[in-house]
């Protein structure tokens, strides 16, 4: 299907600042292709596209003091989002590629090393594979309340496992932590989601089963119609939409994802 | 029933030290009566019996440098431990006495303020009363593994809720935290237990339902035949068996609880 | 000096609710005397004055569904607040009364058991007594930034010790935790402060030195001209101004403390 | 200088297990060259050398049930360890390569996002560069006690920042967290150290200053004569010497690092 994606934001910066921007999906991914895209920013001293260690496109700019804004729009050809197959296989560790293995390790917001017994108690007796990962996501959806303003940038899976409240980012971190505790590679994805209400940047999960990455999103019981990844990483620390080195205020931010006729 | 209780310990102290000892049950309690007791310590410069804020008998001594040991033995007439009645009633807050109200508040090792949603999700829909408290204890027993050496003196309910492993102290703290999150007064009890294997000091819980304190012990599915409280408090911080102000080693410690013929 | 104290608040309650209110200072304390006071509440089904375990006056009411408000005003004769004397003596544990001893133990928001080495490193070599406590308060003031909106109701001394930001409550908790780690009894006090800008309920600390409780307030380098305690406890968990058992919103809250002519 | 390095370990495995072994330094690094090396393991079903995401050599094996042991020995030509230069420059973020940028982000055991204000208070006013990083290491050495058995595999910089005790791994994590909070890329290195007493695997830090990685080791005030890296990563989670997927006991483990004549 064809999607029109648009993200804009305006900041008030106390000083000229370096800025890292991650709002541009990779030009082509496993389940999407960018047909056309345009990024405009208020005049900046430099604007360079780079790749981080995980392969994500990252825009490095120098943003001016005062008002700074960007507008990104793209047309993206995206496959419909697919249900995680019940029988997608968990692989033994030595069959995992390096690129997946790193996602079995604990990270800042996914303390899988603390959640080992909890994961075993809750999911250890389920048959391995896609069905087990779906059970993890269902557990998280059933045990965690979705509510804005209850968690913050330092909230981690350890917190969410007991406080039982959060937003998409927290849901994703808890799913990831449980999966890793079960030795299933799981990574954080920031991206665009069709059908999110209210529209916003979205955080969800990909697990590596049967030699491919599969989407899983614990914030909904239905399938999101389409998910377009922007950046992947060990958790949200690796996938910040915008990083600024100067004190600033967010004046305005908006995201739009629409299906358009082909 | 009649119990013979005996507790001994030997310490190696680097210096003369203040010592607070709490191994002597109150002479009479709701469900026990001390028939005779004897405490001997290696020569100490002073030895005074006092009461802490919670009413617990506390022995204040000055222990000598080097070897220091105590031996406490008692004969105690104890009622058989009773099952927490299914229908014992949860009281509204303004009907609780001050002495029970303090036990609805969070404390060092029972962070009920963090566990509110978890308690509501797991137990909020159960009918209030004794049956609900028993469900809490059963949940803790079913979800937490009992294992020595996995927790320490700073482990709290928050940790146990996610790490899912611990000893009697940790089981008690988690039960207490859940109960308080449900507005049920719950306090920590250190005491002697008949039938504990291996024998040791025991930590369990009392909840205030229907105008009385009731025992609840999440470490066992059966009823402990008898429980004799030594000290109660908001959590284990208030009920340390021995507090020493000088660096020291525990050389030996033993507890014995036997049923004797009347 | 003579103070006019006034506290008002309005809540919107989803349902009739129990309410515990602690805004009334004890009629007479070590350094103040209530000359006259008046509490008015919107019609309530019951309103009873009780004492909690720590001796604090606590008003138990049943608040109506919908708008609920109270207004408390008092005239208080208060001694000027006194500097904590440099030479006020730390007492050995067995000379502390039960009423002070409980305040050497860790509590929910004052994890002194975790901060022992930090307290020893920073303050262990200072001469014991009032001067050391003042050094603790100065350290906290010098190392923690005062800023609204950076901490919340579950923030504890452990958090503040590393995040280094908070409000009066957090400053108090950290001072308390350090003092207890040094075996100095320290308790949390909620109260009225003259000269607070903007006016609000205040949280500060009392330490027990030389057989008396002394005020210490880490949020200011100068001496607050007068402090009138409302409630004392192990930490803020024991001294909540208002406790409601029903979901609600705070519509308005205001505090006023003025010096008046005698 | 020429070093003879030897590492051995024996495990008792409850079952056949995958095993990842990281004891082999890269054949050539910025400051060392492996002259010869030999790895022997008890018969294993497979033994393959791979590279993880960070470029570390990782041995993947299938270890047999029961006794399993390995012996690694190597001769390594190593440059003498060099003092971190006082004037090595901190680079602005957009001049950092992707390979260094990832090491400015928080990780499982280095919660730099929590330590921002603490890092600013303690080190924010120092002139940037190598001297500042050395001040960080000196602070950690001066404020944290080195002591075995006080920390565990889940201990993180957040814990060490307040508990102030730990081993080389904890010292490294805290240095890393502070550096990242100052926007200085810092990574964890597991390796062999000449002169460690008792001999063991060592954990230390590398910071990226002036376009190169520099060693810094907070556990000693003197310079370690030589450090040979085995693996680098965001923290110790990425650099485990041995990972086993089956319950097991460590029967024996030994490390030896000696200087030999050329």
UniProtKB/TrEMBL annotation, chains A, B, C, D:
Q: Does the keyword Cytoplasm apply?
A: no
Please give the name of this protein: Transglutaminase-like superfamily protein
Q: Which residues form a coiled coil?
A: none
Taxonomy, superkingdom: Bacteria
Q: What is the lineage of its organism?
A: Bacteria, Pseudomonadati, Planctomycetota, Planctomycetia, Isosphaerales
Q: Start and end of every Transglutaminase-like domain?
A: 160-220
Report the SMART domains cross-referenced here.
TGc (SM00460)
Keywords from the named record: Plasmid
Q: Where is the signal peptide?
A: none
